[in-house]
């Protein structure tokens, strides 16, 4: 059943902007007339949103918060989904929820209805809903899912804050260097020299260096380099190699390993606590890992477990760059048969370690970028003023 968006005015003069499922447009208009709604506009919602329409993680989190709140208040899932459908402005999310409602009306279960939208809602959310439906604990699972999404959002927000300011400082420094070399250095080079042979070697080198910096050429080279890196990022093999390189970068590699270990641990703990079998939870938790190279290495664990190896041994042999503390926690959980509880405790403690690692990375990156910006500024000032000083010394002032 297609989804239609409409605008209208009710009997109280209130402007309506909502969506509704209907067999066709005529059935929708007939229903609205029966409800005494003056129709201003009614059109079908595209089943697939254009590629430039994306769903932000905050919108997914808002959806599950709304769903959990309505279910706790006694609403049915169908009513809660329909209510959110009328308030969201995201076209991809609205289309996905409409398809979920349509599948529910056709008799599909909750997990089956969401499983076909795993690319939007995420494999962890779909896996949890399937497990909650099998155990009859949907109301208990939704708060855990919301907590998981909030932790992910918080970690990503901290990561952006840690890298945004230093990188902006570096970009502004490079921009200032290009502008000054393009506008000011030619003016200095045009000064008449009283004795070119008397010019110092340093002055000659500085003018040659900055004078050779063509602003347009360097800007074009930077743009081409950025486009090349973006094209490499879009290709799966290229992204895999980039993620492998990141793991070997000082400081950044430590943070990437720490972040990926936490992502894997918190997803696995959530799934095991929801009584999902380890072999079913493992591929879902692996998909939650942000580093693609670590994902590839972890995929070998499933076959190793199926061949008879214990989980801790499979992780150890995968060479997935996981933290030794995480591997020790897995061994303790296996030995005491309390793996979900041990993982839950580990993720709580490791989240604090992750926050500390992000803070340390921010401090180191800020120091490195500030030092580089200072060196660029010093070189620029030296390149601008030393030739002038040298020239004034030649003419006798």
Q: How do the strands of the widest beta sheet line up side by side?
A: 2-1-3
End-to-end separation: 88 Å
Number of spatially distinct domains: 3
What is the residue-averaged pLDDT? 77
Helix content class: over 70%
**Radius of gyration over all CA atoms, rounded:** 30 Å
Number of helices: 19
Given as residue ranges, the uncertain stretches (5+ residues, pLDDT < 50) are 193-199
Largest sheet: 3 strands, antiparallel
What is the string of SSEs from the N terminus onward? Answer: EEHEHHHHHHHHHHHHHHHHHH
| Coarse structural class | mainly alpha
Portion in beta strands: 5-15%
Report the principal-axis shape.
flat
Beta strands, count: 3
**Assembly status:** single chain
Short summary:
With 397 residues, the protein is mostly helical. The chain has 19 helices and 3 strands.
How does this model look, in words?
It is flat and about 95 Å long. The model is unreliable at 193-199 (pLDDT under 50). It has a 3-stranded antiparallel β-sheet. It has helices spanning 25-34, 57-72, 77-85, 91-105, 110-115, 118-121, 123-135, 138-183, 185-189, 201-211, 215-234, 236-247, 252-273, 278-287, 292-298, 300-306, 311-318, 324-336, 339-395; strands at residues 3-9, 15-21, 38-44. The longest helix has 57 residues, at 339-395. It starts with a strand and ends with a helix. The chain has 3 domains: 3-44; 57-150, Type II secretion system (T2SS), domain F (Receptor-associated Protein); 153-397, no CATH class. Helix 10 (201-211) packs across helix 19 and helix 16 (300-306) packs antiparallel against helix 17 (311-318). By secondary structure, the chain is mainly α.
């Amino acid at each position: 059943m297609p989804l239609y968006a409409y605008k209208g005015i009710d009997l109280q003069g209130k402007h309506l902007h909502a969506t509704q499922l209907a067999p066709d447009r005529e059935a929708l208009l007939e229903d609205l007339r029966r409800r005494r709604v003056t129709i201003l506009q009614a059109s079908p919602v595209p089943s697939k949103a254009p590629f430039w329409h994306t769903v932000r993680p905050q919108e997914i989190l808002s959806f599950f918060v709304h769903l959990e709140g309505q279910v706790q208040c006694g609403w049915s899932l169908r009513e809660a989904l329909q209510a959110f459908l009328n308030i969201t402005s995201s076209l991809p999310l609205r289309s996905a929820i409409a398809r979920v409602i349509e599948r529910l009306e056709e008799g599909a279960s909750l997990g089956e209805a969401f499983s076909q939208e795993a690319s939007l809602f995420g494999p962890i959310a779909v896996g949890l809903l399937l497990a909650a439906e099998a155990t009859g604990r949907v109301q208990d699972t939704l708060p855990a899912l919301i907590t998981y999404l909030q932790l992910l959002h918080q970690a990503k927000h901290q990561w952006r804050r840690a890298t945004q300011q230093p990188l902006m400082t570096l970009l502004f420094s490079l921009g200032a260097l290009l502008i000054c070399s393009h506008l000011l250095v030619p003016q200095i080079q045009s000064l008449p020299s009283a004795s070119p042979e008397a010019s110092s070697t340093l002055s000659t080198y500085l003018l040659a260096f900055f004078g050779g910096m063509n602003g347009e050429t360097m800007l074009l080279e930077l743009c081409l380099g950025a486009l090349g890196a973006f094209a490499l990022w879009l290709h799966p093999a290229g992204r895999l190699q980039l993620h492998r390189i990141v793991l070997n970068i000082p400081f950044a590699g430590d943070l990437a390993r720490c972040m990926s270990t936490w992502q894997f641990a918190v997803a696995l703990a959530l799934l095991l606590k929801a009584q999902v079998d380890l072999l079913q939870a493992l591929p879902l938790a692996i998909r939650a890992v942000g580093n693609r190279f670590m994902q590839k290495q972890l995929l070998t664990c499933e076959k190793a477990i199926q061949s008879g190896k214990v989980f801790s041994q499979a992780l150890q042999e995968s060479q997935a760059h996981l933290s030794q503390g995480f591997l020790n926690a897995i061994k303790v959980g296996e030995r005491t048969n309390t793996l979900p509880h041990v993982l839950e405790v580990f993720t709580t403690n490791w989240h604090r370690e992750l926050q500390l690692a992000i803070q340390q990375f921010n401090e180191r990156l800020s120091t490195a970028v500030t030092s580089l910006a200072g060196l660029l500024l010093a070189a620029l000032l030296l390149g601008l003023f030393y030739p002038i000083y040298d020239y004034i010394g030649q003419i006798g002032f």
